[in-house]
Structures are given as C-alpha cells and as structure tokens.
Amino acid sequence: MTMLSVEGLAVSRGGLPVLENIGFTLEAGHALVLRGPNGIGKTTLLRTLAGLQPALAGTVSMPPESMAYAAHSDGLKSTLTVRENMTFWASVYATHDIEPALDRMNLRNLDHRAAHSLSAGQKRRLGLARLLVTGRPIWVLDEPTVSLDTASVALFAEAVRGHLSTGGAALIATHIDLGLEEARVLDLAPFKAKPPEEGGMQGAFDEAFL
Amino acid sequence: MIALLLRDLRLAVRAGGGFGLGLAFFLIVVTLVPFGVGPQGEILARIAPGILWLGALLACLLSLDRIFALDFEDGSLDLLVTAPIPLEGVVSIKALAHWITTGLPLVVAAPVFGILLHLAPEAQIWMIVALLLGTPALSVLGTFGAALTVGLKRGGLLLSLLVLPFYVPTLIFGAELVRRGAEGMNTQVPLLMLAGITAATIALVPFASAAAIRVNLR
C-alpha cells in the first residue's frame, strides 16, 4: 500500500528553488533514506512534506493526519522532566501511553530527570521517543542520529524496524549508515534545481520578504 | 489543548519561567511614581487610574516576546505546527497562559497597588473590572506581535513598537472607565467599549497570529 507519493515536487529555500522534479513513492513497511551533500535541500524537502512551507510545484499525496515530523532540534522543554515532556506530546497526539516508548528508547531510568540535565545523546533519544507516542504511520526524520553513539543508533534502527513491521513507513535524511540495510536510498543530487538564468524555475518574488 | 495550557503554566512557574516578572515590574512602577510625583494625595488619586493602566500595559509588554520565542528556539514550535491541534488553537491557548501568568496576577494585585496610589475607594472595584476586561485583549494582541517577530533575535523592541498602537484603545477606555467610576459618573460607555475591544480581539487576532507564524516558519 502506498503511504506517501510525491510527483514533480519542487521546493525552495529563501525564495530560491533548490530541488525540482522530485518523484518517489513510499509504501507501508518501507523506509526511504535521503542522501545528498550539505545544502542540497534535504531539510527543505522534509519541511515541505511536513507542511511547514509551501511547495513551489508538484503534488504530495498522503492520508490526512498521518505524518510525524522530527526536526534537527528535539523540541524539548529543558525545565520539564523526561516524563513530563513525553506526557505532553502523548496527550497532544491523544495516545496517552508513554511507557512502551520509554522502554524502547531506554529512558526508563532517566524519567524523573529534568531535560536540561540530559546529555546530547539522551536528549536526542527523548526526541525520538516522542515519535513513538505520536501513533502516526509516516515518520519524517531529519538527521535523527546526530549525537547518538553506536549503541543508540542500533536502538534507533530497532525502533524504526519495529515501526515498519507494524505497517508504518519512514523517510529519513541522514549522512551516516543507520544499519537499515533494507531501506531504499534516494540520492537528491540529480534533482538539484537549475538556476533561473539557465532556464530553471523562478522562486516566488515576494518569498524573500516573508 | 488542555495539555498545552498546563505545560505552559508549568513552564512559567519553573525556574526561569518568568512568572511574577510582570507583577514585580507593576509593583516597581507603582511604588516609584509617588516618589517622582510627590506625596500629595489628590494629585496621585487623579493620575492613579492612568498609572495603574500604564503599569499593567508595560508589565504585559515585558513578557510578550517569550510567548513564541522560547518554543521557536528549542524547535517545539515546528512540532506544534505539525501536531494535530489547529495553530489558531495553539495561539489562543498561549494567549490564555500568558494572561493567567501576567494579567490575572495584576487584576488580583490592583486593589493593593491602588492603595499605594491613593486611588479613591469607590474606584477600586472599577479598577478590578477594567483590568479584568482589558488585560485579556493585551495578551491576545501580544500574540500577534510575538508571532510577527518570532524568528528575530532581540525582536523585543520591534515587538513593542508593533504592539503598542494596538494597546491604545484598551488603555484609553480602561483608564476612562476607572476615572468615571471614581467620579461617580455613568460608566456604561467605556465599559461596553472595553468589553467590545476584548471580545473582538479574542475572536479575530488568533487567526492573524497563526498566519504570521506560518509565514515566519517557512
């Protein structure tokens, strides 16, 4: 079953087109890894898919309310405890059961610590544990393994596998090997947008002022 | 939505949350004015409504930039926008949390501070009514300014300049209501205007703020 399909998508950053003609489909139970050099537009593409910015052209189709987005920053409140942070996101997504997520990301013995006293890797694990309580089928992850050690990367790969095995899908932008051999890889370099003077797409004129 | 309100209130009372900042500022203004103006009771009583309202307004302004800036910095604003709550709802809840932590303490403290300024006893009740009706508009209008400046470093000055003109009607009718109340005149007109301004801002401004956030997050 196709969960996410993208056709002829063009995205822009700061009014300049960065990627064009992107097309792919993502089926339930599969993961797609996005690769490409810095600045190619991986984050921009993911933000566009998450609905944080409008696409320049093309269509994105997926079931409504099906996407969970995880950005570079984890969106943690440093003065709240691990448990409070998780409980908040669980009630926003109306799922309420945070215990399995705490166990899966190995946060059980940290759950009463304030988030500011966690290490960078532990924060990241908490940020990824948030995905588990969203209950959304499509995960859109931007550099999920930044500051994780190898054990935690394995933990994360395991969590993604568990998610895929229950009919979920994942779209992951990353530079490192996640240990997800079954994931398809999409290199974004061929989709780089042509500059406007070579006949490429024009960005919206007012975009630079917004 | 309740979860978001509880989270914001909890954050406000935790270390560095800024709860009480507005109240402390209000107290400073109100205690310093008699030193500056002089101890004559009749002069203080005359300017008291205006001073109290100015204090409330500036105290409110002081904490506005935190409404969205903190969530923007740690990335939770992105996540809230993609969460299954309407952004207009997020804005309304944040305005409510801001009012509970800033406006409501001022309403409660106003009678005490009124005494410091020789506010006429018959005006006390009107001061409470005016602040209760007027301060929600300050918080809601503040979300609009905060939403416009959310991506900016040190956006506080710009935010003040953007928001202050919108505060003027509330200030005028709020102070007028207390003045009329103190002099025993008919208070219906300023009362209705104040309530009307607040009702209109609560109904309309969250949509504008949500639109401004969407533009700023691009």
Automatic annotation (TrEMBL), chain A:
GO terms, molecular function: ATP binding; ATP hydrolysis activity; transmembrane transporter activity
ABC transporter domain span: 4-210
InterPro entries attached to this UniProt entry: AAA+_ATPase (IPR003593), ABC_transporter-like_ATP-bd (IPR003439), ABC_transporter-like_CS (IPR017871), ABC_transptr_haem_export_CcmA (IPR005895), P-loop_NTPase (IPR027417)
Biological process per Gene Ontology, one example term: cytochrome complex assembly
Keywords: ATP-binding, Cytochrome c-type biogenesis, Membrane, Nucleotide-binding, Translocase, Transport
Superkingdom classification of source: Bacteria
NCBIfam families referenced in this protein's UniProt entry, alphabetically: ccmA (TIGR01189)
UniProt-recorded name of the protein: Cytochrome C biogenesis protein CcmA
Higher taxonomy: Bacteria, Pseudomonadati, Pseudomonadota, Alphaproteobacteria, Rhodobacterales
Automatic annotation (TrEMBL), chain B:
Protein family per UniProt: Belongs to the CcmB/CycW/HelB family.
Lineage start: Bacteria, Pseudomonadati, Pseudomonadota, Alphaproteobacteria, Rhodobacterales
Main location: membrane
Recorded topology in the membrane: Multi-pass membrane protein
Locations listed in the record: Cell inner membrane
Alphabetized InterPro entries for the sequence: Cyt_c_biogenesis_CcmB, Cyt_c_CcmB_bac
Transmembrane segments: 12-37, 43-64, 96-119, 125-150, 157-178, 190-213
Function recorded in the entry: Required for the export of heme to the periplasm for the biogenesis of c-type cytochromes.
Gene Ontology biological process terms, A to Z: cytochrome c biosynthetic process; cytochrome complex assembly
Annotated GO CC locations: plasma membrane
Family matches, as Pfam families: CcmB (PF03379)
Keyword terms: Cell inner membrane, Cell membrane, Cytochrome c-type biogenesis, Membrane, Transmembrane, Transmembrane helix, Transport
Molecular functions per Gene Ontology: heme transmembrane transporter activity
Name of the protein in its database record: Heme exporter protein B
Originating organism: Thioclava pacifica DSM 10166
